[in-house]
Amino acid sequence: MLDEEDTYTIAWDAENECILYIDQTLLPGRYEQMRCATVDDLARAIRRLEIRGAPALGIAGAMGVALAAVRSTETDLGRFSGEVGRAGELLRGTRPTAVNLAWGIDRVLGKMALAASVAEAKKIAVAEAQIVAEEDELTCRRLGGFGEELFPERCTVLTHCNAGALACRCWGTALGTIRSAVEAGKDVRVIACETRPLNQGSRLTCWELLRDGIDVTLIPDSSAAYLMRKGMIDLVVVGADRITGDAVFNKIGTYMHAVAARHHGVPFYVAAPLSTFDLSHREADITVEERDRSELTSCGDRRLAPEGVGVLNYAFDATPLDLVDAIVTEIGVLRPPYTESFRLVGRDREVR
Ligand code: MRU
């Protein structure tokens, strides 16, 4: 029987040289750990959103490169590097918007480039992938600690999608700030938007908060602005898939919450690690993932729309930075003007 308390969302199985992960498509009905032993299987799991959420994708990218390395039978270092590099490209293409995926892949490939032999490269790949995973936990804890300071002693927080333990190795980013606030003794109630069409809010955020005994109430995405108008929301906190020099990319629907929050004078916060920052790009440079029409036209066996209808299914949207009151990172809380804050965190060379 799987011990739910002790299991990370994604982990490296050193004994069997493969990746272990919680299949998020099965939640909340089933909590099941899967094993992934090939890069093709990992690519499939990422495309199907069995593994999802920006930091978890970063870890998956890193472990995917390690997997390609340990499974390779090449003995020539040049050919070995070519094969692992191609595996990295395959994984990179699975989800184009969440920058952490490419970040995790590049980080391990970069370290492997220092190796003088295939055996050394394999060792480096596995070690670095494990470091990426371990760092994620520390990052979320630190970020949570900074973020909870933004929470009043008693408050109701709206969140969108799932930026929780399931989207990371554990703890979470947006939900990490909530967990840290609860841990600090604050009285926090959470309003979770269901997050159509794949319901990461109702399926995942509600599941993990309930499991931790945190007060959570589910709403349809479309009622968020009305609750703000009624004074029922004190702040909004969401995660991010990519932060460019001018915008925050996150799950589709985030932008409308930011617009509504600004209109109603509700603070809108983003919680994300520095690995989500992509300051050398602007919003217009980024490919927003479009997903299959079936996510909107059916639910299981039930048809939700007439056959032949046109469908536009963006997985993410971009919120301009002027609607973001603060960005919580593992090194502190960034405030506008962001060009200034980005410079202060030492990433100014890349800012566009
Ligand atoms: O399509 P998903 O479920 O991978 O989208 C996830 C999100 O949009 C999260 O909010 C984001 O990755 C931040 S996770 C800490």
From TrEMBL:
GO terms for molecular function: S-methyl-5-thioribose-1-phosphate isomerase activity. It catalyses: 5-(methylsulfanyl)-alpha-D-ribose 1-phosphate = 5-(methylsulfanyl)-D-ribulose 1-phosphate. It comes from the Archaea. The record marks 161 as: Transition state stabilizer. The active site is at residue 241. Keywords: Amino-acid biosynthesis, Isomerase, Methionine biosynthesis. SUPFAM superfamilies: NagB/RpiA/CoA transferase-like. Its EC number is 5.3.1.23. Substrate binds at residues 52-54, 95, 200, 250-251. GO terms for biological process: L-methionine salvage from methylthioadenosine. Pfam families: IF-2B. Belongs to the EIF-2B alpha/beta/delta subunits family. MtnA subfamily. Catalyzes the interconversion of methylthioribose-1-phosphate (MTR-1-P) into methylthioribulose-1-phosphate (MTRu-1-P). This is Putative methylthioribose-1-phosphate isomerase.
